[in-house]
């Protein structure tokens, strides 16, 4: 199974840094955020990863490649520890450039020829997952059991109107309906979809059909998802583990603090800060 990372977005919530730095390279600790997703895919058994990129994101391709000059230096110095830090992730990477920013549905159509005839896991780069069972693998488990598309969900995220909200079947697996960003009070449940999806080949057929009818504005995954739901071919998996939302500066800060709290070399600094600046004991 292939993994797709939808990484062509402008990242305008992080301007000015994203004027030149891809938001997927913004660090959580010393790791660029995209490496969380790459590692999740690899830990799930995915060996082929397709990055949907753009002309503004050349540094992403470089980050996933070898860095010869540093390799040479660290080899000369016998620094195995540093060599390990710069080793490219153990997967095959392909890059597809989205030449017009016309939404995630349009982005996915760019990779349809590469995933032809195969199910794939799609990740939005703002959603990071930490936990013992990698999230892509959790979706693959449900796909293997049902043969359906699978949405990763979380319960009670706070403001449900920021999300696609699932109408869950009584079996706790099937999806009966889906409303993208419902007005408050109109949500069918508090089970919301996060940026991890498993799509079957049939989904991509509907995606192309919807695009052919699409007139203006950005194009998302909802047309194809609605068709698949109507055919009874969508399931959901409530995420086990923790989801970090790095899509806006507050969530990104939370991810950094969480990382610092879990790192014995950084935690004392966080604790000292909390005492000094926040007056916490
Ligand atoms: C997208 C999806 C939405 C989902 C969300 C998760 O929205 O369209 O269904 O709930 O990601 O992060 P976006 O946040 O890109 O507006």
Description:
With 281 residues, the chain is of the alpha/beta class. It has 2 domains: 2-147 and 194-231, Alpha-Beta Complex (Spore Coat Polysaccharide Biosynthesis Protein SpsA, Chain A); 248-281, no CATH class. The protein has 10 helices and 13 strands. The strands form 3 sheets. Strands 1, 4, 5, 6, 8, 9, 10, 11 and 12 form a 9-stranded mixed beta sheet that branches. A two-stranded antiparallel sheet has the order 2-3. β2 and β3 (31-32) form a beta hairpin. The chain is globular, with a radius of gyration of 20 Å. It binds 1-O-phosphono-alpha-D-glucopyranose (G1P). Residues 124, 127, 163-164, 180, 192-195, 220 line the site of 1-O-phosphono-alpha-D-glucopyranose.
């Amino acid at each position: 199974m292939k993994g797709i990372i939808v990484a062509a977005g402008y990242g305008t919530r992080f301007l000015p840094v994203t004027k030149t730095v891809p938001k997927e390279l913004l660090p959580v600790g010393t790791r660029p955020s995209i490496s969380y997703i790459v590692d999740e895919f690899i830990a799930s058994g995915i060996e082929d990863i397709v990055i949907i990129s753009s002309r503004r994101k050349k540094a992403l391709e470089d980050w996933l490649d070898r860095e010869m000059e540093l390799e040479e230096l660290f080899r000369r110095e016998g620094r195995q520890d540093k060599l390990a830090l710069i080793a490219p992730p153990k997967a095959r990477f392909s890059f597809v450039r989205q030449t017009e920013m016309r939404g995630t549905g349009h982005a996915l159509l760019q990779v349809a020829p590469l995933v032809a005839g195969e199910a794939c896991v799609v990740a939005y780069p703002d959603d990071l997952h930490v936990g013992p069972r990698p999230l892509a693998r959790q979706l693959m488990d449900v796909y293997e059991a049902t043969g359906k598309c699978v949405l990763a969900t979380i319960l009670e995220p706070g403001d449900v109107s920021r999300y696609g909200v699932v109408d869950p079947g009584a079996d706790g697996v099937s999806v009966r309906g889906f409303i993208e960003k419902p007005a408050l009070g109109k949500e069918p449940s508090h089970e919301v979809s996060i940026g991890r999806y498993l799509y079957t080949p049939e989904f991509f057929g509907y995606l192309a059909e919807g695009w052919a009818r699409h007139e203006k504005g950005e194009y998302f995954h909802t047309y194809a998802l609605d068709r698949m739901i109507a055919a009874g071919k969508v399931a959901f998996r409530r995420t086990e583990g923790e989801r970090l939302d790095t899509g806006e500066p507050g969530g990104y800060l939370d991810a950094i603090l969480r990382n610092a709290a879990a790192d014995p070399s950084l935690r004392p600094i966080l604790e000292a800060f909390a005492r000094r600046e926040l007056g916490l004991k």
